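In the previous lecture we treated proteins in isolation. Real proteins rarely work alone, and many bind small molecules. This record shows how such a complex is specified: first the sequence, then the SMILES for LBFN2T5F.
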Amino acid sequence: MRFTKMHGLSNDFVVVVDREGVPGNIAQLAVAICNRHTGIGADGLVYILPSEVADCQMRIFNGDGSESEQCGNAIRCVAKYFYERISSGKAELKIETKRAVQSVWLTVKEGKVTQVRVDMGQPILEASHVPVISTQSIAQDEQLVVQDREFVYSAVSMGNPHAVIEVENALEFPLHQYGPLIENHPHFPNRTNVEFITVHQPNSVTMRVWERGVGETQACGSGACATVVASARKGRLDRKATVHLKGGDLLIEWRVEDDHVYMTGPAAYSFDGDWELLRPVHLA
Ligand SMILES: N[C@@H](CCC[C@H](N)C(=O)O)C(=O)O
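The predicted 3D structure, ligand included, written as tokens:
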């Protein structure tokens, strides 16, 4: 199986193009491929597929084999791959995801895509649609006690669920201790991605993320969008802000005009390869 390793701010993916669709053992395949000791090693497995309604379709599988509805960093990789290796005709593409048909705009220099702007859609705030168990219709400033600590989170879906938590120092926060417990907390019926953030200025925030189905990653595009939405609603951030992640910066804008969130950032290749499995990956 031919693949390309790509990343968006070091959130890394194995990208596969397949005209036939995803294989029946996709969950097991994702687990095997993403394993950093015995596989290729990645946060997720991404398929680029034909689409009847868009230029192409993207599906994203986490390292634990679960499928996500949305992935901000992967969609930028798919856009770059599509333009540079499949069809370079248009600098504006439509990409079908589980969330929607998403528009992306490419900045191209000497035939290479240097930046990608993505319409990440309207944030979903209604608690039952995130989904999050809450007595409020919008789960803002919800309390959650985990072990010895009380957290205050706001739940936002960008197609996939996020819990945004402001902490004093995101860079030093013990994310590996609390991240998995919040990801799997009964408040979140579909589990959740968890963002620990520290606001510096109205247009600048540092974020670390514990991703559903993966663990800590170097960046999360949909999480950066959720961070700006949750924080702007509380007046903690402007609607346009730079989100500083371990892997680099994303510019996020939650536009008043259409209520959509726009994300701008880079995408990059690591290497191409062939995957030949020397032991079987069984069907479930
Ligand atoms: N890294 C991604 C999100 C990937 C999916 C996530 N782990 C989930 O299960 O929702 C991003 O850049 O948005």
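Summary for your notes: The chain has four helices and 18 strands. The first helix runs from residue 26 to 34.
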